[in-house]
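Case study: Succinate dehydrogenase iron-sulfur subunit.
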Amino acid sequence: MSENTKTLEVSVWRGTQEGGAFETFSVPAQESQTVLDVVSWIQQSADPTLTYRYACRVGMCGSCAMMVNGQPRWTCRTHVSRVLDGNRLEIAPLRNLPVIKDLAADMDPFFDKWIKAGGVHRPSRTRHEPIQEVSPEEPGRVEANKAIECINCSVCYAACDTVAGNEDYLGPAALQRAWTLYNDEKVQDRGAILDAVSGSDGCLNCHTQGSCTRYCPNELDPLSAIAGLKRAVATSFFRRRA
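Here is what the predicted structure looks like once written out:
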């Protein structure tokens, strides 16, 4: 690296769930450089033992999500120029998830909650019956369509302060998925979905801070989906008592 090369001071989390610390690297600054480019340079040119996760590099898979200067982001779509603090970056694994090693977070708790919230589609017809036709203009279909671009990157989960304070809370992505299925005409038992999300770890525990919607890279609105679940749970409760 020549003396005239501009450099970034990049602090990267090194360690496992049991403990670790930030390690600082000097990384050459490049035009149109992404945070993932920075991480890749460190692994390829400075320390090959650095562990991180990525796949598509074009904002399709979400696997490169990390904390960048304290905020959850897709690193492949985040340009350094947008987040640089002076000439410094701090990169860490996603918040609210166990750390496997360095920048790789364990996604199991995230997906376990996605399933617990009723995220598995349970159809109302068998494969031997005709496929149910659903109009794209049907109100429930319109509502369900709002969240089908969720790719389970866990950015909303890492942004959620309710998850940070209550590790049992299902989280925005799982609840958004539940709301999508609740509005799907092809789902047989909507009551079961409400039962799955109405406990102390469910939608009623949401503090409505909106970090999930603010940080969603696909510009989805989990906060509105959770609000819809809250209304549906309340309506179901009073109907049962009537």
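For the exam, be able to explain this: The chain has ten helices and seven strands.
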